[in-house]
Amino acid sequence: MSGCPYTPPDPAQHGAQLDFSQDMSYGDYLQLDAILNAQKPLSPDHNEMLFIIQHQTSELWMKLMLHELHAAMRAIATDDLHSAFKMLARVSRIMGQLVTAWDVLATMTPPEYSAIRPYLAHSSGFQSAQYRCIEFALGNKNAAMLKPHAHRPDLLAIVQAAFETPSLYDEALKLLARRGLAVPESHTQRDWTQPYQASDAVEQAWLIAYRDPKQHWELYQLGEKLTDLEDSFRLWRFRHVTTVERIIGFKRGTGGTGGVSYLRSMLDVVLFPEIWKLRTDL
Q1: pLDDT at position 4, please?
Q2: What average pLDDT does this structure show over 196-202?
Q3: Closest CA to 71 of 156, 147, 137
Q4: DSSP-assigned states of every residue in 24-35
Q5: Considering the chain, what percentage of its residues have pLDDT values greater than 70?
Q6: From CA 3, how far away is CA 63, in angstroms rounded?
Q7: How far apart, in Å, do the first and last CA atoms of the chain sit?
């Protein structure tokens, strides 16, 4: 097609600032030099960069998830349900990002992973302090999971605090009790380090809200936000299992677990049991 040659637009004519010798730039604000130079492959293999970035970006999403989860828990504790709902919805969306991220890692084939595996030594996502804090915040408490962080007192203190703090579900049950529903003291004043035990009385309290959503709208909505979150978390766990099986089969994980067999056992963990059971009993 004939005509005038293409002339690229001049950003300056559109008001764009181009001189950052005396001002903060995009890269400065986001600390991109530190982030983009944090990838240090140990092997000569091309595919290790994918493996590193996959896990680094997951850790960034988990940092945001913890930021939102902690704020949501504080909001529930102070009866600010509108703020909590927004934060929990965001957590579910973040989990969705983590679910789809497995699609990228799944492009790594077994021979490609085998080329980098010796360089990983015993490092494993199993040892992620942030992931452990998320699990503890969601109520999956297990004292044995503190041990991988014992060599780092700073990280251990963070994980230990999450272990000893009431979970998101604990805060939800305390809210139900404040709203006048009959949640037993065994579930509002307990040792927060112990694994959660499902209760028929707790289910009955949730059922009151679910049988009359208009009367208990905020509690009903809270139950559904928790359902959304666990639904997303289950999808993340499932994609984790299938991706690992696709890449390493049934070999043991680098961290020493049974790999797929261990991950499959985690699929049976139910975080908010009464909210799922009440669907049968409604």
Answers
A1: 77
A2: 97
A3: 137
A4: --HHHHHTHHHH
A5: 97
A6: 53
A7: 68
**Do 216 and 209 touch, CB atoms closer than 8 A?**
yes
d(CA 275, CA 227): 7
The SS3 of residue 146 is helix
Question: Would you state the structure tokens that stand for residue 116, as one six-digit string?
Answer: 């980098």
What gap in Å lies between CA 201 and CA 130, rounded to an integer?
33
Residues 169, 183 contacting (CB under 8 angstroms): no
String of DSSP letters for 231-245: HHHHHHHHHHHHHHH
Residue with tokens 């293409």: 6
For residue 258, pLDDT beyond 70: no
In this predicted structure, what is the pLDDT of residue 198? 97
Query: What residue type is 274 in one-letter code?
Result: E
Cβ contact 229:95 at 8 Å: yes
pLDDT the model gives residue 103: 93
